[in-house]
Amino acid sequence: MNVIRLYNIKPKEKLGQVFLIDERVLKREVEYAELSSKDVVLEIGSGFGSLTKFLVEKAKKVYAIEKDSTLIEVLKSYIIAKNLEIIQGDALRITFPEFNKCVSNLPYVISSPITFKLLKHDFEKAILTYQKEFAERLIAKPGEKNYSRISVACHYYASVRILEILPPRVFYPKPKVASAIVEIVKKEKPFNVDEERYFALVRDLFSHKKKTVRKALLSSKRIELAKSLPSNILEKRVFKLDPEEIAEMLEYEN
Ligand code: SAM
Known about the structure:
Distance between the termini: 59 Å
Oligomer: single chain
Largest sheet: 7 strands, mixed
Strand order of the largest sheet: 4-3-2-5-6-9-7
Radius of gyration: 20 Å
Structural class: alpha/beta
Strand content: 15-25%
Bound molecules: S-adenosylmethionine
Order of helices and strands: HEHEHEHEEHEHHEEEHHHHH
């Protein structure tokens, strides 16, 4: 909070700038990440460095990606550490450096695309804050209200847990909704698929999540697949399909 006042930082809503100002929470995030001097950490959206400050104390190396050049100037004068490399730019466009852990209070405006990008990457563990509702989508099971494309991707690539719910008061400015600290641990893939074909099908199906598989496939112009699948699958609602069933559907594609 002192830094915000000192540098007269005016949070930019468009960039999802809500800063985590409770040091106890920041320290717990670092503990959850179980950092050691061997770890190379990626931080997405480092802001002026409130979390970065604790990461550089524990890790071998920290890559901090930040889009806002004004905050980068503050970060540079606020934290002097040999093991910190600041990368200015859009985390969605930048090719990530090699890292084994990711610890970030993410900009919520890019929660979905940045999570897909991360999941495809090779790493051990990520500790991330999201809006609570988005975090619930990550762990949702087939048939549940929040079950979506990102739930399928999480099931495929990782084990995901919500570690804590955070009230708005730990942030500045206070967001309207609660947030959650989430742990993502990469795991062995549960089945073998051509990932490009699999996630293209998942995308097409979940664009029509409440429809039956038949209607979703027809709406996505996947006419041949709609003709070849057994009727018990075709009549199912998309949001009730489990990730393995979707993988099996690929076997009916020419
Ligand atoms: N790490 C700080 C903290 O813990 O308080 C700031 C977190 S704030 C929720 C998200 C940060 O991500 C902001 O500093 C914002 O400028 C930055 N940001 C937003 N979009 C970004 C993008 N596409 N690429 C990189 N950084 C981005």
